Amino acid sequence: MELGLNGKRALVTASSKGLGLGCARALAAAGCDLVMNARGAEALEASAEAIRTEFGVSITAVAADIVSEEGRAAVLAAAGEVDILVTNAGGPPPGVWTDWSREDFIKALDANMLTPIALMQAVLPGMIDRGWGRVVNITSQSVKSPIAALGLSNSARAGLTGFVAGTSRQVAPHGVTINNMLPGIHATDRAVSLDGGVASREGITLDEARTKREQSIPVRRYGTADEFGATCAFLCSQHAGFIVGQNFLLDGGASNATL
């Protein structure tokens, strides 16, 4: 399928590995030039060079903490006018409600709600002026099916979802769409971290923890970054202009809900 993205410029944050990298690769495969961001310069440069070599697109790599004002300013300055924004940031640590202080919630809100909102506020005016744009926010399945141990993430990402619900309808008349992707467990470093916590608590191996989690997913496996990225690229494509303010679960059927 021709996605109509050749020559578009896409900013993908937290894209040196994991789901962000999956999205960057899929957009590059569709012909997009990229602005990639992550905190670690070494991993970021390695991923950027691999994509340049494989797909022959132009890539600007900016090592910075996208959650900080300084880092965000550096990324946006390097990005310039972008046609596509994919927001992504690592999730806050698991725990229980008695663990979390006000400061813990502020950190979660900064990373997983306020940062993507700030990025949208920065790029949406240009998209509106040009009459075309795509924004995809990587959130979590916990928005639709809360995960008790991830209460910080549940809270922050639900707030972002509410912002998108209203804003997406306001920018849609200008050819700009905003949608959210809600990943379940995927084979990324985040999965290793979560499985490691289960293994430690239950006194089992990492492989046993993964196998146990896989049995709770109807497809009996973890998702892959490549299939996640392919969905992202479609939502950014010429075929997705009638999709506005939606939340797409990519969780292998783990969230047991009718709607």
Question: Can you describe what's shown?
Answer:
With 259 residues, this protein is of the alpha/beta class. The chain folds into two domains: 9-184 and 225-249, NAD(P)-binding Rossmann-like Domain (Rossmann fold, 3-Layer(aba) Sandwich); 187-222, no CATH class. Helices cover 47% and strands 14% of the residues. The chain contains eight helices and seven strands. It has helices spanning 18-29, 41-55, 69-79, 102-130, 151-171, 189-202, 206-214, 225-235; strands at residues 9-12, 33-38, 59-63, 84-87, 133-138, 176-183, 247-250. The protein has a seven-stranded parallel sheet with strand order 3-2-1-4-5-6-7, with helices on both faces. β5, α5 and β6 (176-183) form a beta-alpha-beta unit. α1 packs parallel to α2, α1 crosses α8 (225-235) and α6 packs across α7.
In summary, what is this structure?
With 259 residues, the protein is of the alpha/beta class. The protein is 47% helix and 14% strand. The chain has helices at residues 18-29, 41-55, 69-79, 102-130, 151-171, 189-202, 206-214, 225-235; strands at residues 9-12, 33-38, 59-63, 84-87, 133-138, 176-183, 247-250.
